[in-house]
Amino acid sequence: MVNHEGQLYTIEGVAAGILMIFTAYLVMSTTTVYTPGDTHISDMQLEQLGTDALQMMNTPANGLQSESPLQTIVEQNPMDSATFNTLFLNYVNNETGSKTDNLHYSAAVTYYNISSQTTGSLPLASNRNLTGVEHPVRVTEWVIVNKLFPGDPGGKNQNRAVLVEVLLWRD
Amino acid sequence: MAGLNEDAQWIVLMGFVVSFSLFFLAMVLNQSTVVGQTTAESVLDFPKNDIHDLRSVIIQSVYQKNVDDPVINNDIVSITLARKGAIVNYSSYHQGSYTYINIHYNNGVTVYNETWASP
Prior knowledge:
The complex is a heterodimer.
Chain A: H1 7-30, H2 38-57, H3 69-75, H4 81-93, E1 103-113, E2 118-126, E3 137-147, E4 158-170
Antiparallel strand pairs in A: 1-2, 1-4, 3-4
Helix pairs in contact in A: 2-4
Chain B: H1 9-45, H2 48-64, H3 70-84, E1 87-95, E2 98-106, E3 111-117
């Protein structure tokens, strides 16, 4: 027969069981956290900042009538890396007041080689070399330029779509 | 509590309450470490900027130049596949005084389809 003895011991036993299961759950779940969330948040902000800067550079001053600064930079032969450097760093590094941020970048232009049917890359500009210890994010912007790229069978300038890719990091 | 001393039941009850609330606090603390990561990752994984940018260059090339240039079309499709791992396909047609562009984008996770009509 069931009697009423030992009720408190039963409750204590149940509580101890829950405590052990919960401890095991905590130990197991801690192994799934690889990196703290903070790094991803700053990556997200950096990516948005770089995308905004490139979009501003690819906006023509006069609506759709004239060329954007980015189009003009890529169409130069060789490409105008000095203007790109000035414009881009102005957009990403300026802060309120006289202080400036400390962002660095390395930019390249990706084009399609019609003859070999592969994509190629031309260096555009950079203000610091990547050494491997940085943690960059990649931002991109499409731009249509009237230019002759390697592997073009026509041999003369024509409208091409190329991708400006920028690796951006803070140190 | 037949076999036991019945004194101090409130103390025992409060002991249980405190220990269970400690369990829940520990659980909340455990979850809080991954909150920032999951939100930022979901924002980074969603190709908002890619689609936005792609859409604008397609509309710029087709509508502004008023012709669906096969060279530019091939450039956009090939470079997107090579550099972003996404499949893109677009085509345009004219009906009356309007230009329509069908845009398809698929990077394996996010699919975007649009029929753009000239204003």
